[in-house]
Amino acid sequence: MALTGLEIYKQLPKKNCGECGTPTCLAFAMNLAAGKASLDSCPYVSDAAREALDAAAAPPIAKVVLGAGPQAIEMGDETELFRHDKRFYHETAIAIQVSDNLSSAELKDQVAAINELEFDRVGQHYTIQAIAIRHDAGDPLAFQTAVTAVAAATSLNLVLMAADAEVLKGVLPDVAARKPLLYSATAANYEAMTALAKEHNCPLAVYGNDLEELAGLVDKIVALGHKQLVLDPGARETSRAVADFTQIRRLAIKKRFRSFGYPIIALTTAGDPLAEILQAVNYVTKYASLVVLRTAAKEHLLPLLSWRQNLYTDPQVPIRVEEKLNEIGAVNENSPVYVTTNFSLTYYSVAGEIEGTRIPSYLLSVDTDGLSVLTAYADGKFEAEKIAALIKKIGLENKVKHRRIIIPGAVAVLKGKLEDLSGWEVLVGPREATGIVAYARNLAA
């Protein structure tokens, strides 16, 4: 049972020094009880109190690391049930399955295609994080050969999917340094799988046929001394899986049920790739830390990765681009100069329309804390003084021989003051980005 804020407060030094980042020890104790603070933030807590408070100070969902080095990913360590309460921190990792039944040439081609699954969209870089090698062949040597080939061909993290501990035992010495996820410990093999995971210090997936069996297995594995766990409650039908994932998350965060305080792994099962992506979207949303898919087509994965990116951004912080002078096309000294804000959606809408004019142009993105044009203007963050200062700062007069800039039509009121401050001629562009193509053609005529 988790300790209450008052129970934690009794163990604290009661200095009210504020060094933990909260003004009083009582406030700090309440944050600890809610899983929103770390006991390490208090420099004066005694060893005895630390030992007593370990359970309360631990996050409701443990942090589990898959992989090693710069490619390693952190799963779990979440504190919220709903994104709007605060934010989600560790985005869902995506793994693509390959089978040890593939020929060496087929496996090589598939891994090469997976390695190329990178996307750039609205200033964000999307990738997948892992490859899962599934033991389908009856021969353990086939699995060992496949794992060796995949490990040599990719720097992505590895998930080793074999229910027989002896099969995993044959391949782990060669890849243990990469800290693969071992899938999976079950009621039939958990002792052997736990021993293997402990020996090589690897995370271990725990599979249960239902939530009750899963909780019991976790307790047995923790009693054996291994806590780097990832949970699979066994459901494969989408609605049942989502219900189980939600129950696990709710019990871990709201009730501090330690048996469920670990990240979740989800495996897609739909035969159609689009249906598989829909499954994955549900699992990313509720609340998988790792989703293992079979489809590796770019056109299938991009919507999923876009959704993941949106879900794991901070809802209180708009997505923004860098404040700078951007070049669209092969610009020259005669290129027009447009001005907009650094709100990502606004910037890329404007940039896309400018590109559609086929006229090489400059686009000046002004730092408005990621607010759109009218919102930033209303908040005093998109104003003549800031635009004039930025024109001078970037040396725009050295980029073009004309002295004209184009501002959004929605803020035409800035024209007079901006001309006075900058000495540039200010042209009022269209109110909407969709009008840029026609506007540019008329301007060039």
Shape: globular
Contiguous low-pLDDT stretches (5 residues minimum) are none
Distance between the termini: 75 Å
**Major β-sheet annotation:** 8 strands, parallel
Output the number of helix runs.
16
**Strand segment tally:** 17
Explain this structure to me?
With 445 residues, this protein is of the alpha/beta class. The protein folds into three domains: 5-57, 3-methyladenine DNA Glycosylase II, Chain A, domain 3 (Orthogonal Bundle), CATH 1.10.15; 63-311, Dihydropteroate synthase-like (TIM Barrel, Alpha-Beta Barrel); 324-444, Rossmann fold (3-Layer(aba) Sandwich). 40% of the residues lie in helices and 17% in strands. The protein contains 16 helices and 17 strands. An eight-stranded parallel beta sheet has the order 10-9-8-7-6-3-12-11. It has a three-stranded mixed beta sheet with strand order 13-15-14, with helices on both faces. Helix 12 links the parallel strand 14 and strand 15 (361-366). The longest helix is centred in the middle third of the chain and has 17 residues, at 238-254. It is globular, with a radius of gyration of 27 Å. The model has no long low-confidence stretch (mean pLDDT 92).
Explain the layout of strands and helices:
Elements: H1 5-11, H2 25-33, H3 47-57, E1 63-66, E2 73-76, E3 93-99, H4 104-115, E4 118-121, E5 124-127, E6 130-134, H5 140-153, E7 157-161, H6 165-175, E8 181-185, H7 190-200, E9 204-207, H8 211-223, E10 229-232, H9 238-254, E11 265-267, H10 273-285, E12 290-293, H11 298-311, E13 324-328, E14 337-341, H12 344-357, E15 361-366, H13 373-378, H14 384-393, E16 404-407, H15 415-422, E17 425-428, H16 436-444
Parallel strand pairs: 3-6, 3-12, 6-7, 7-8, 8-9, 9-10, 11-12, 14-15, 16-17
Antiparallel strand pairs: 1-2, 4-5, 13-15
